[in-house]
Write a structure and sequence with these properties.
Length: 82
């Protein structure tokens, strides 16, 4: 899936969470488990599955290490000594 697909899923989940929190702990959405599973858990599972097949660099770009100039350095955490 493409970046807009995952972003849309996360935004829809955020809208659900905002409405749920607005209703409070005794609200309709918080008191019915089916909405928590379908509107909160399933979208996050879908995004996780997508990111297992698409590397994050392909979606978000190379990050800091890809934008360093030749005279700058980046600490590689895997190469540090104890």
């Amino acid at each position: 899936m493409r970046k807009p697909d995952t972003v849309a899923i996360i935004i829809l989940r955020c809208i659900f969470r905002a409405i749920e929190f607005g209703q409070g702990h005794d609200g309709y959405l918080a008191s019915h488990e089916v909405y928590m599973y379908t509107l909160d858990t399933v979208p996050m599972l879908a995004v996780q599955v997508m990111f297992h097949f698409v590397h994050a660099v392909g979606v978000f770009g190379p990050g800091l290490s890809g934008r360093l100039a030749d005279d700058e350095s980046c600490i590689d955490l895997y190469l540090r000594t104890a």
